[in-house]
Design goal:
By secondary structure, this protein is α+β, with helices and mostly antiparallel strands. It has 2 helices and 5 strands. The chain has a 3-stranded antiparallel β-sheet with strand order 1-2-5, with helices on one face. The protein has a two-stranded antiparallel ribbon with strand order 3-4. It starts with 6 loop residues before the first helix and ends in an 8-residue tail after the last strand.
């Protein structure tokens, strides 16, 4: 008598493995999003600290809002907080976090990630932060010191 597995036994094992993979993949994606949210919050806190330091040490002016100007200003700031502006972990094009000014006399700023949905955005209106395109935006601002999930 020959020893080994029959074709049916192999198919059953393959089916069980496929089911386990099907169950675990969505959970892994959720953990990946949670990790990226934590990463974005941490990087936004660091960027907020760098922007506030720049403001204090540059005659109470904020850096320009273009990505290149922000990169140049924060990298050359004294004291140095960051050497480069990190990229948004949720951006499909590996773009930097978005930095905009607004409010009364443009005295407020917001820096945000597009969030897990990939399409979140925020603006400053009437001295308040308003999210647009859903609520998946993660942001830091000098209006509200809280980072929004």
């Amino acid at each position: 008598m020959k020893k080994g597995f029959t074709l049916i036994e192999l198919l059953i094992v393959i089916a069980v493995i496929s089911i386990l993979i099907g169950i675990s993949l969505p959970r892994f994606k959720g953990m990946q999003d949670e990790g990226n949210i934590a990463k974005a919050k941490g990087e936004l806190r660091t960027l907020q600290t760098a922007i506030e330091s720049y403001f204090i040490h540059n005659n109470n002016t904020y850096p320009a809002t273009t990505a290149a100007a922000l990169q140049t200003a924060l990298a050359a700031a004294v004291p140095s907080i960051i050497t480069f502006v990190p990229t948004d972990p949720f951006s499909a094009t590996s773009a930097d976090y978005v930095y905009v000014m607004g409010g009364t006399n443009s005295k407020f700023y917001i820096i945000y990630s597009v969030g897990p949905g990939g399409n979140g955005s925020a603006v400053i209106t009437s001295d308040a932060v308003v999210e647009t395109n859903g609520s998946s935006c993660i942001y830091a601002s000098n209006i509200s010191q809280d980072l929004q999930p």
